[in-house]
Amino acid sequence: MRILRRRHLLSGVALLAATSVQAQVAPPTTDTPTTDTPTTDTPASAAADPAADPATEIVVTGSRIARPDYEAPNPIVSFSAADLQKSGNTNVTTFLQRVPALTNSRDSTRTAGNAQADGSFGQVGLNLLDLRGLGPNRTLVLVNGRRHVAGQPDTAAVDINAIPTDLIERVDVLTGAASAVYGADGVSGVVNFVMKRDFDGVAARSQFGISERGDAANRFASLIAGRNFADGRGNLTLAYEYNADQPLANDGRAYLARNDRQYFVNLDNYDPTRVGSYKIGPVRDLRYPYSSNQGIVYIGDQTFRGDGAVYTPGRFLQNDGYSVGGDDTPVAGYIGDIFPRTRRHAVNALTHYDASDAFKISLEGKFVQSTVTSFGGYGGNYPATIALDNPYIPASILAAATAAGLSSVDVNRNNFDIPRRGEEDRRRTYRGVVDVTGRISEHASYDVSYTYGQTDVRATKLNDRLNDRFLNALDAVRGPGGTIVCRSADARAAGCVPVNTFGGKTVDPASFGYFLSNPASDARLTQHVANASLNGDFGQFFTLPGGPVAFAVGGEYRRESSSFRPAQAITDNAFYQYDEYILPTPSSGHFDVWEAFGELNAPILKDVPFASLLSVGAAGRYSDYSTVGSTRAYQFNGIYAPIREISFRGSYGRSVRAPNIGEIFRPQTGSSNFFSDPCYLGNRTLGTQFRTANCQTLITGAGGNPATFTAQNNPNATIFIPGTQQGNPDLRAEVARTWTAGVVVRPISGLSIGLDWYDIRLRDAINTPDANTIASLCVDQPTLDNAYCNAIGRERGTGFINGYVVQPQNVAAFRTAGAELNIAYRFRTARMGAFDIRLVGGYLDKLEQVATPGAIAEDNVDQPFRPKYTFTFSPSWTAGALTLSYNLRWQDGVRRFAKADTDANPSLVDPRYFRYKELWQHDVQAEVAVDQRFSFYGGVNNLADQKPDIGFETNVPISPVGRYFYAGAKVRY
């Protein structure tokens, strides 16, 4: 591990608190009364109105210098608390997926059930924002301009569940080189949650929702109480919030269950010369061969079903690892939950006291506990060895085994009659902030703050089978009076109930309490951030024609740590076969960083002919990490407004991301993966033009026969292959170059139109692909001499994959570019009431990954959750006490198959399956304000009941929850 000598930049502390943050194209305010819970009167709300005092200055997201919001040089998309409540969503991540930059964010529907990889801990139900599709690790999440402790062990990814919904004043999504202002991790930008403050009174909100099918119910309640004191110089606010979601299982939707589910696989009898013949197509009733939920027993050349009948195998697909029909195990049965069970409690306390202009102190405290439970697939016996004196053995199987001279039989079985395996994650988040600010002079002020965050994760695996106890339960004999009992007297004394695995629904539920166990593992993440800054202007010394040069300068110290302690029973390998076959290793790691930063804004011209505003700015940050040494980040920006109604803006900068704790410190840990080998005959025409030749060379070199290299000939095609994953102490920091350019037009009062282009290029990117991706990247490069081939082990004599290593490497490059349109229009009519119209649109021009230097760029545009075109249209109308809101979320149909694959093979798949269906989500809400203190509302999300398209994904282009009804009430005193 390379550790560079520490140079202490500053002994001190520092953050310029961005307590009021405003988007430059946020919807202009009107004097329309609202019943939002609660409302506040902040400088930001004044700045939102183009007609407001132009001298009003705030700290804008992406800068530490106070300025009018229309002078902000970086593109920001902002949504308010009212927007969130009008959506009917109590899950903030689900709401934010409507932002074009955040479509790939992971809400609960993407972190439940089989989304959990074997051997993972503490990831169930996480809600992670992914800005620009570059990954949660490259998305910096702030709360009031300050960092927030992570929610996922070994990473810097913030769990959005830890942010209380009803305390949110606004969410700002910024694209640009943010590292110079906020530090590492923001290579793709920043998502800043601005929270409500100075609340005076009592406010409460309650909401209940349920799907049209009577499931996936949600209950939400919040209570906020605050009081101003000392003539408004002080405030104390307390808040409590509760949210509960009921789970939704895969089988809760008929079109996803068993025989009705359709998957895309390699078809039999494919002939590229025959018109209408396609290599890949949808198939129903897909199965896993060589296994059955009824049991399968091989004796000589005979194959029995567990109940003693002759086994009917499914039709094995010639070019794929699956079968269709028969007694084989259905693939759809293994999906598990598509929406987890969630319970969340959040308690917040906020207070401040302004002793004088020179000394203002504020305190924040938070505790959030979320408990998320989700179930995935069933366990199995692969195989279970049963002695011939076991009375559960059917007569036909017993006779065949006796005739073959056996003393036992092996039963392969997927146990659909034993509860699904799952995980319950309890996350407790603690966070406190102490901030002291004050004015030093008319031209300078200081800010000193300290933030502490801690997340404790208890990850409890559910329904694991203890090895010794399950073996005892399998070993059944005849007892007194002809009863069937466990053979071991000690086991019987401990409560053993025998288990019958011969048949489909034969296991007695009374046996579960003896052999099922729920081992709990623990993780802790901590964060310390201390900052000190000085900001102001040089007005007492000199001014430019546009005003004084503003500055911000300061330093920051940050320390992050993560530790993981697996359950002793798991590390002791106490569980049956594959229930917990990946043995985790206790781990811990930490890093610290000292930083110095500065920022300048020079208003060159202001309020002169042909220059309502001309300003340029710069920011820089020097960081010294205990892990990767020193890094540098900077940004240059400018804004030019020939008249106040039109502003041109742009920025260019260098951002960095230091590797997180897991990427560096993770010890070597066991892992496993189910492979669809890219070198199977049916897969060689996929991928790049290099794959076919590389596979020929690779398989031949391992001693295999490329002509017979198929899943059907691989005895391990349907089992998990063991491997390892580990960190890499030699990683370097990633470096991104970002530029943005845009225009904001305000042609009439209340209307604001922003159009921006962004371009992000990331080099030395840390890439940690999954095992299947590593296998594909190996053979898709120009040569086999690459880091990915070194990570895949192949069996001598056959060439089949028999091992792998997953380890992060600085080998990749990413580039993304595109445009965003943001239109907001608010106006009031004399007779028809007030209108609020919002449209946010996105165009994704590039999203490329180059896996290794010199490799072919992989185009990820138009892939699931990364659409090329997307927009959200949200008009609302208020007339008297009634407010009607509508939201349309649209995305173009993304590709099922890579464009390179369909271009290379015109008969790859029927053209009607090239793409998933477009997303057309219609949401409506009606709210009635009974008076200024009370209102009630109701709505329907996914009004048209759009369903996900067919395939392995369960939530493209939309989740399977379906049409959803909700109702709520708000009160304020």
Description:
Mean pLDDT is 90; it is low at 1-56. The chain is built from 13 helices and 50 strands. The strands form ten sheets. It has a 22-stranded antiparallel barrel. The chain starts with 42 loop residues before the first helix and ends with a strand. With 973 residues, the protein is mainly β.
List the helices and strands and how they pair.
Elements: H1 43-47, E1 58-59, E2 66-67, E3 76-80, H2 81-87, H3 92-96, E4 140-143, E5 146-147, E6 168-174, H4 179-182, E7 190-195, E8 201-211, E9 218-229, E10 234-245, E11 248-249, E12 262-266, E13 280-284, E14 286-288, E15 296-299, E16 302-305, E17 315-316, E18 323-324, E19 329-330, E20 337-339, E21 341-356, E22 359-375, E23 380-387, H5 395-403, E24 408-414, E25 422-441, E26 444-462, E27 464-465, H6 467-474, E28 476-478, E29 484-486, H7 489-493, H8 512-515, E30 516-517, E31 520-537, E32 550-565, H9 568-571, E33 587-608, E34 611-625, E35 629-643, E36 646-657, H10 661-665, E37 669-673, H11 691-701, E38 721-725, E39 734-745, E40 751-767, H12 771-780, E41 792-794, E42 801-806, E43 809-829, E44 833-850, E45 858-859, E46 869-879, E47 882-891, H13 899-904, E48 919-929, E49 934-941, E50 964-972
Parallel strand pairs: 4-7, 38-42
Antiparallel strand pairs: 1-2, 3-6, 4-5, 6-7, 8-9, 8-50, 9-10, 10-21, 11-20, 12-13, 14-18, 14-19, 15-16, 15-24, 17-18, 21-22, 22-25, 23-24, 25-26, 26-31, 27-30, 28-29, 31-32, 32-33, 33-34, 34-35, 35-36, 36-39, 37-38, 39-40, 40-43, 41-42, 43-44, 44-45, 44-46, 46-47, 47-48, 48-49, 49-50
